[in-house]
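User: Hello! I'm new to structural biology and keep hearing that structure can be predicted from sequence alone. Could you demonstrate with Amidophosphoribosyltransferase? Please show me the input and the output so I can see what each looks like.

Assistant: Of course. The first part below is the input, the amino acid sequence of Amidophosphoribosyltransferase. The second part is the output, the predicted structure written as tokens.
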Amino acid sequence: MARGDGRLSHDLIPGEKGPQDACGVFGVWAPGEEVAKLTYYGLYALQHRGQEAAGIAVSNGSQIMVYKDVGLVSQVFDENSLESLRGHLAVGHCRYSTTGGSTWENAQPTLGATAAGTVALGHNGNLTNSHELRRLVGERYGEVAGGEVSRGNTTDTALVTALLAGDRDHTLEATALEVLPRLRGAFSLVFMDEDTLYGARDPHGVRPLVLGRLESGWVIASETAALDIVGANFVREVEPGELVAIDADGVRSTRFAEPTPTGCIFEYVYLARPDTTINGQVVHESRVEMGRRLAREHPVEADLVIPVPESGTPAAVGYAQESGIPYGQGLVKNAYVGRTFIQPSQTIRQLGIRLKLNPLRNVIKGKRLVVVDDSIVRGNTQRALVRMLREAGAAEVHVRISSAPVTWPCFYGIDFATRAELIASGMGTDEVRANIGADSLGYISLDGMVAATNQRADRLCTACFTGEYPIELPDSAFLGKHTLEADNPEALPGLELAVRHS
């Protein structure tokens, strides 16, 4: 899947899926501005976080309108659809499905009818207690109409929306302060009613969320890169365990849980845009430093360092700087592959990786190569890449990976393969090297990877590398991508979509 910021994901081969991103969220409160267009560009900057669906909800003070569909941000919206969304505040979402299938019904923002109006919500992350929340919705609200927990919507986000919307005795803000402490797992939320924009982040701060200032308003977004594109100045991160509310009276903050920060280290390795800043650290600088440390930990005699574009580029630059081996472009990416709904023919499928990458033979021929990538998941992509480079005349292929071996699945918003499919969970480094056909293979150490982020080790989630999960997981029967689909979706009839525009 091609990335909106020019990165190239691991699924270079049809059927090979690498680590898929969580989602991107964006909210803006700016009277007098074209908030739908600001949200569109914010989502465009966050496209790398999700390419399956996109949506924008806008309030004009008396009603909320939503427009959403499957596809990339640029495919879902056009000038006419954005012109139809007029108001003073908006929330937007671009989606990759970590719970619930990739269908229109599961696109966000989700909607629910509250006592006073409507709530529209976008969610980045993954909840681990969806089974408990579904039971809670059923016990509290039963046949309440206006939510999105229905036969169609199977996301954990729909459960949160139903809980926020179902309390008819309290304001949305008061309800949120009661509901948020009940959520387990990773969540960075943007939501709104007709008048107020809200942002909330789980007590561990697993996924990023930032607050920005416009000349005439405020922005909440997944990454600082989304602030940059709309001309907002970075103010601060939304703190773990914090609820931020923005309306005509300004910004107010409430703590709903004590913070125990353990942000996702994979944001620094791969997920976030390189021009994003997380907890004071520019992601690009961390990735270059990972390359430098990788060179110190796994040196090799070679003629040329090349990246797997684009995700391996910063680390390859760092490797070349530290090792003194020249950096070069040995692989050319097809910039126009993008996300396509046209399945490749059998002939094209057999060409596999060449659909998206092609070697520069005159650069590669006869050279001893260091090939730098950010991670290995199943190994299919690296196996095909090594074979392609050898066919192009490479004398040696030495693979270097700027993350530690991925050996455990993520339950907090990254859709890795299952543990059985993770090549490093069943093989040692030399076995993986032989499997992909490389002359040598080196992963950065966990300590080296952590040091490159400039963060304290105890403030980072490294569960996909260590199997040590900072947030308690439920019984294995209730874990999995489609938790809600397996958990009796007929249990709450009558909870239907509040508004549907497509």
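User: So the tokens describe the shape?

Assistant: Right, they're a compact way of writing down the 3D structure. Reading them back into a model, for example: Residues 101 and 390 are 39 Å apart (CA to CA).
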